[in-house]
Amino acid sequence: MKEIDTKKRGLWDKNSPFREWTESIVIAFILAMLIRTFFLQAFKIPSGSMRDTLIEGDRLMVNKLRYGAKVPFSDKRLPGFNQPQRGDIIVFKYPKNPKRDFIKRLIGFGGETVEIIEGDIYINGNLIMDPRIKNIFYYNDTPYGEEGEPTVIPEGFVFVLGDNSGSSHDSRKWGFVPEENIIGRAELIYWPFSRIRILE
Questions:
Q1: Residue 159 lies in a domain
Q2: Has 64 been annotated as catalytic?
Q3: 156: closest CA among 109, 188, 193?
């Protein structure tokens, strides 16, 4: 004759399904937060400032590991594999409102002089031939992009422009991005399916 188990199982007993389910959710959440904080983060394009490279509704994967992710609640950054390069598409905290994230193309670095002449970008007086930059017509704008008025980028900052510069709110209008505001490099479009591609 079998002995009847009269003990009631609590929700947090070792083999309780509720406990196992809860632990799985907590572990998944922690892993997701670690990945989002230090490795990859998804972003959605809200405007047409990067057309036709990126269009409204594109969903991107941004690599934080490439430049080194920022340590939460500090000004420190983990070592990265690369430094930001001219022509990279970067995501950064908007200098005028750090709660907002912007995405633009990196054009110039601290200590350099940038000038837009007839749609072309000149750095320290030299025409930039990188096809990611050269094949885009950049419009002049004030106060940081007026033709005949070279702009010196302060040390510790970068100069960014939208590929659709006729409709882009970028460094020509509001100035420079502190290097510590850079979140990461946009690596690929993962949605919609028809637009999946590696970004350059």
A1: yes
A2: no
A3: 109
